[in-house]
Amino acid sequence: MKTVKKAIIPAAGLGTRFLPATKAMPKEMLPIVDKPTIQYIVEEAIESGIEDIIIVTGKGKRSIEDHFDNAYELEQTLLEKEKFELLEKVQEASKMVDIHYIRQKEPKGLGHAVWCARNFIGNEPFAVLLGDDIVQAETPCLKQLINEYDRTHSSVIGVKQVPEDETDRYGIIDPIEQFERSFQVRNFVEKPKKGTAPSNLAIIGRYIFTPEIFLFLDKQEIGAGGEIQLTDAIQKLNQIQRVFAYEFEGQRYDVGDKLGFIETTIEFALQKEELRDDLLKFMSQKLNR
């Protein structure tokens, strides 16, 4: 059985929720304290055993490639000024793993972005990680899904419970049977209308796929929002081979909208010893005004 060693990170979206900041900066490069959001995603992939990553980019995303490349002038300046700790942090991103890039030439949706990387994947199982969700867990979120793939030899979709009034924002699973944290699934529903969701288990930006998913992405069928939806392809894959959902352990942070991004930044800042006390003092002063 082939193991999961390749991953796709779609990063071609326009980031309209963060305009005007994302007019010139990709949303994936917006920092959570001192690290761009996409680096958290890449780090999770590496910690999960991924050896090759392809990032699907679009127009105006060159800074992502620059971030994971060497920065000779900056590194030399830091070296000359003996700022070795900062130098190590700067070099860390370029030493992580083999990262490849391909452009999604048209904004046709998540399913299309994954399809763009089909030649890189070939006939292997692979992972997909979305940048809108950061997960902190003792065992990396993606590694949990890989372990489940190793057990089932089937595609595995990461899910998490969400409030009932938010189910219309997500792909939702219709579970049949549950074994511990794993679910056999009847249907995968893309953004059901309020009050119609079959459960509150939402698809949260982490996937393991067998290469057969490309049989359906190849058809380029248009779904909700006039885009090629990954959830639609998952539903069709589930009709020819089992696709499981796995409720992963860990704290999930939604950085795909402004409020979630701000909350995540505060949470991660509080986790840093050098910032925690001053930040708590500042927040207390604001609350007591």
From TrEMBL:
Pathway: Lipid metabolism; Glycolipid metabolism; diglucosyl-diacylglycerol biosynthesis. It comes from the Bacteria. One of its GO terms (biological process) is UDP-alpha-D-glucose metabolic process. This is UTP--glucose-1-phosphate uridylyltransferase. It comes from Neobacillus niacini. GO terms for molecular function: UTP:glucose-1-phosphate uridylyltransferase activity. CDD domains: UGPase_prokaryotic. InterPro entries: GalU_uridylyltTrfase_bac/arc, NTP_transferase_dom, Nucleotide-diphossugar_trans. Belongs to the UDPGP type 2 family. It catalyses: alpha-D-glucose 1-phosphate + UTP + H(+) = UDP-alpha-D-glucose + diphosphate. It is an enzyme of class 2 (transferase). Residues 6-264 form the Nucleotidyl transferase domain. Keywords: Nucleotidyltransferase, Transferase. Pfam families: NTP_transferase (PF00483). Its EC number is 2.7.7.9.
